[in-house]
Amino acid sequence: MNEDAEEELTYAESGVDIEASEAATAALVGAVGESEGDYAGLLDIGDRYLALATDGVGTKLLVAEALGDYSTVGIDCIAMNVNDLVAAGVRPVAFVDYLAVDTPDETFAEQVGTGLAAGAAEADIELVGGETAVMPEVVKGLDLAGTVAGLAAKDAIFPAEAEPGDALVGFRSSGIHSNGLTLARTAATRNHEYTDEYPFDDYDTVGEALLEPTKIYTHLLDPMREHDVHAAAHVTGGGWTNLERMGDYRYEIDDAFEPQSVFEFIQSEGNVSDEEMHRTFNMGTGFVAALAPDDAEALADATDGRVVGHVEEGEGVSVRGLEL
């Protein structure tokens, strides 16, 4: 291992300070005012809620650019949006995208569109439009983001508050998803190129491992409603600390899914601490629901989930012996 690789990488040192980001977000929200809802903004339209969420793909686009393969980032864009609505108990119905580029290019635009169409089909939503902006003085390369709209009866959304004694049902991620890529890219490219052979059997190249698209969880919505889920968390930026969005309790995780090999690769190459890995990445579990213990086993049996822990009075998240 070279001298650089011996230095311990963190997300902040790689260029993204979560605390500073949260402070900036709080300042923005304070200026425009609070809206009802956490993962999605909820608008009362009579007997239902109209829900809106917006998100992008982030620096995963730089991996796609390096490989010349944009065919999956559209799936990420859909997934990062619809999964937030699912966490609120809202069914996504329609999506609009925003593609900003420095130079228009038919090839990558077609690839992005292919991914968007594939993601929309998997999420069972309609692509109802979008915008492509050419801004060479503002954007270097490209940026991809989108907004999803959803509808839910007022009694269909989750209470959004876990309860002490609840069990936690987790659902496996597909890999790194679209969060923490600044740290992942920095670690992965210390000693490798994206086109280098990947040291595990899962993928051919390092870049392919990082590009695995985000898993879409819309299939969980009906079974979660049927089993009276109290709250749900989409495990995105901030890693396992996202569970705290379900309420100010203690979340004890004692049977988490094993992380995929990409996390072992990132941690080894970047000499990243266990705590930093779990505060940044999903580490194999991309979605978590809190519900009564009697209902939790039934939900796990009805889906591809498993009971990974429980909720207690207190604060913080404990996973794999780590206090986050």
Total DSSP helices: 12
- Over all CA atoms, what is the radius of gyration? 19 Å
**Unreliable residue runs:** 1-5, 20-33
Terminal CA distance reads 28 Å
How much of the polypeptide forms β-strand, as a percent range? 15-25%
N-to-C SSE string, H for helix and E for strand: HHHEEHHEHEEEHHHEEHHEHEEE
Mean pLDDT: 91
Helicity, as a percent range: 25-40%
Shape: globular
Number of strand segments? 12
Q: What's the story with the biggest beta sheet?
A: 7 strands, mixed
Structure class: alpha+beta
- Strand order across the biggest sheet? 7-9-6-10-8-11-12
What does this structure look like?
The chain has helices at 3-6, 11-14, 18-32, 60-67, 73-88, 106-123, 181-188, 206-211, 221-226, 261-270, 274-280, 293-302, and strands at residues 41-44, 48-56, 91-101, 126-134, 142-153, 167-172, 231-234, 250-253, 285-291, 305-312, 316-319, 322-323. It is of the alpha+beta class and 324 residues long. It has a seven-stranded mixed β-sheet, sandwiched between helices. A five-stranded mixed β-sheet has the order 1-2-5-3-4. The longest helix has 18 residues, at 106-123. It is globular, with a radius of gyration of 19 Å.
